[in-house]
Amino acid sequence: MLTSEANPNPEKLSSTVLEKDFWLTDEHIDHAQWLLQQHFAGSNGLHSVLAFEGKTPKIQRGQKEFVQIINVGRKHWVTVTNIGCEDNVVKVYDSKYIELPEKDRKKFYLCLAALLNTSYPNMTIVWPSMQNQKGCSDCGLFAVAVAFSLLIGEDPSTQAYDQKTMRVHLAMCFQVGELAQFPVNASVLPMQHERKEVVELFCHCRMPYSGSFMIECATCAEWFHRSCENVPRKVNAKTIFCCANCK
């Protein structure tokens, strides 16, 4: 399991945050999540973003409420949470509301299922309505702002963050070593409409299909991964497989 850690050079992180159109990196997000851990002791999630870069998320799966910032590809950051949700529901706060390519989408859904760890046969992904950022490079700033709002019990859908001051605010937080609530602007800002998607989950591990080999149980019709069941090494169209629950 990879956890977010303090960066040994917060001054450098602070200076780069102030650069115009600079996209926050893994180091910036991990340091911000470490500061969130210090501010909100006992909070769940906030794993190092590196834990989600491989084929399988390197996290300890649990049933607790969590907040997590994830890179969904192409340097784009979102914040995900199940706070206040039903057991099979996860919310994705995306300030750009982008459509992911299929490969990135499958990997992202694996990350969501690993965090959610539900026993349900599907998970519902909700993209709540939220402020639509201007430009492309501030998604990391919005992700940190949303994470802070969630951890203090605020609904990010009701927040109008002051995008013009976000860089200065985060840079100051890095300098003093403590995160604070991001400034808001009372102006009415463009909002994105909520959307939902239901994703089917399979096997004992309750993960979505990712393209890896799976086999159907002849009795319960559930699909299983080779790594999760005692699947014969050689299988073909005539192979009759029964899972451990049905034997």
Automatic annotation (TrEMBL):
InterPro entries: Papain-like_cys_pep_sf (IPR038765), Zinc_finger_PHD-type_CS (IPR019786), Znf_FYVE_PHD (IPR011011), Znf_PHD (IPR001965), Znf_PHD-finger (IPR019787), Znf_RING/FYVE/PHD (IPR013083). It comes from the Eukaryota. This is Calcium-responsive transcription factor. It comes from Paramuricea clavata (Red gorgonian). The lineage of its organism: Eukaryota, Metazoa, Cnidaria, Anthozoa, Octocorallia.
